[in-house]
Amino acid sequence: MAREVEYDDAKTAEVIEGEAVDGAAPDLAADPRAGDGMGCHAGAGAMEAAAREAGQSELLDRYAADYPQGPHDKPQSMCPAFGSLRTGLRMRRVGTVLSGSACCVYGLSFVSHFYGARRSIGYVPFSSETLVTGKLFEDIRDSVHEMADPERYDAIVVTNLCVPTASGVPLRLLPKDINGVRIIGIDVPGFGVPTHAEAKDVLAGAMLARAREEAEAGPVRRPRAGVEDRPSVTLLGEMFPADPMQIGGMLAPMGLAAGPVVPAREWRELYAALDCGAVAAIHPFYTSAIREFERAGRPVIGSAPVGYDGTAAWLEAVGEAFGVAAERVAAAKDAVLPAIRGALGGARIDGTVTLSGYEGSELLVARLLIESGADVPYVGTACPKTPHALADKDWLEAKGTKVVFRASLEQDLSAMEAIRPDLAIGTTPVVQKGKELGIPSLYFTNLISARPLMGPAGAGSLAQVVNAAIGNAERMGKMRAFYQGVGAGETAGVWEGAPNVQERFRAQNLKKLERQRKAAKAQEMI
């Protein structure tokens, strides 16, 4: 080029250059994983200890029982409060208030609106003074009094994030309702609720508990969609919008109907959800919600009508729960199973697939992939093993699949690197690593779970996207060859000279982090 094209005067800015320092490398700031004792940076262990000191032991013990974490600390997924926040924002006439660090509220608000939330999120800020003196609770109480307009809201959900939970801000002391608007207070700390999928259960359980109390106290309002006159099956777990209709069609020959989906989209749907004959735990990790249904005397059915085997077994289980005659159950199976077999036969998948995710539907997707012809040697889910997940686990293991509950990112990556599948389906870091290795990869949440899974529609829904991705193997190889030699990690990019890697600095930093890790471990033992 004859001359450089300039867009602004950035080149005139003064560049401050560092000076070489002899001797030992400078001391670094505290490792953020170990915590520095300040607010939300204190680390999970320190914050849990503080929460217990602040009187939150009962809450944390219940979360530990409902959402067990082992064998490692917790899955590596996004902030759990995103789950409860998103389901609350999807409900009609429900307001949302967050109490937590400003950085957390900003991030949660951003990602919620990125996923389509078109509603304002209330925020009650705090300082060290308002947190310690109890003024934060008073501010929260004032904010819900100000918001509680029965013309706009049926309920307001107030969520404590990590710091208010650790400080013992008592949302249980908020009024149960103001001007007829229900006030639902929940705690969703990152050190107590392992995944955003289970945070959905925290909110669903709290809402079902309040709705059950109201229904037991007297007449309640009818849902906007009306009341089903046939016995209904409530569907537990978020799913593709077409799936409830597919399930309703499968239930009709038995004289049954698909009831509301929980998490619900409107408060009055909770009454209809409780007024069911049985609950289908499509997502089996909704421990708190299942507890409320069982307190209402409703039986819970595991698994889902996915694929040929899954649909046949699920219809039999539903028929048994409702006492439906064997002839009607057989009629329901005859009405749908041939279509599912035909859909599976016409949408085959030829290849090896590893699967991981944190939505809770991973085992169902794996079943569908296997019945479509794929070899699925590994399934990892960030969600826990529960009694209602055992049928899917046993079916997959009988097909030779290794199923890992509470799978860590390291386990998912290790499986992918060892198996070298034709396609890796997983979370963002799994997909990133897969593409670095030249393995075709698909993001589970946006590209797989956002598709129908139930009935004939689900049987043929995965083949197109999966086969197209497997077919990209040659292109992935060309891309990898094109970028070969540009470096990786801190040496990525095109360099005029060799990257200036400070090995001595790195070694000293690693030693410091190891000392901090040992000190934190010793503190836990105390």
Explain the overall architecture.
With 526 residues, the chain is α/β, with parallel strands linked by helices. Helix content is 46%, strand content 12%. It has 22 helices and 14 strands. It has helices at residues 44-53, 57-66, 81-89, 102-114, 128-133, 135-147, 162-166, 196-217, 242-251, 267-274, 287-295, 307-322, 326-345, 362-371, 390-398, 409-419, 428-436, 444-448, 455-459, 463-470, 473-482, 503-525, and strands spanning 94-99, 122-123, 155-160, 177-178, 181-187, 232-236, 257-262, 278-280, 300-301, 352-357, 375-381, 402-405, 423-426, 441-443. The strands form three sheets. It has a five-stranded mixed sheet, sandwiched between helices. It has a five-stranded parallel sheet with strand order 12-11-10-13-14, sandwiched between helices. Helix 15 (390-398) links the parallel strand 11 (375-381) and strand 12 (402-405). The longest helix is centred in the last third of the chain and has 23 residues, at 503-525. The protein is globular and about 75 Å long.
Tell me the number of strands. 14
- Terminal-residue CA separation: 67 Å
Radius of gyration over all CA atoms, rounded:
26 Å
Helix content: 40-55%
Shape label = globular
In terms of topology, how is this protein built?
Blueprint lengths: L43 H10 L3 H10 L14 H9 L4 E6 L2 H13 L7 E2 L4 H6 L1 H13 L7 E6 L1 H5 L10 E2 L2 E7 L8 H22 L14 E5 L5 H10 L5 E6 L4 H8 L3 E3 L6 H9 L4 E2 L5 H16 L3 H20 L6 E6 L4 H10 L3 E7 L8 H9 L3 E4 L3 H11 L3 E4 L1 H9 L4 E3 H5 L6 H5 L3 H8 L2 H10 L20 H23 L1
Parallel strand pairs: 1-2, 1-3, 3-5, 6-7, 6-8, 8-9, 10-11, 10-13, 11-12, 13-14
Antiparallel strand pairs: 4-5
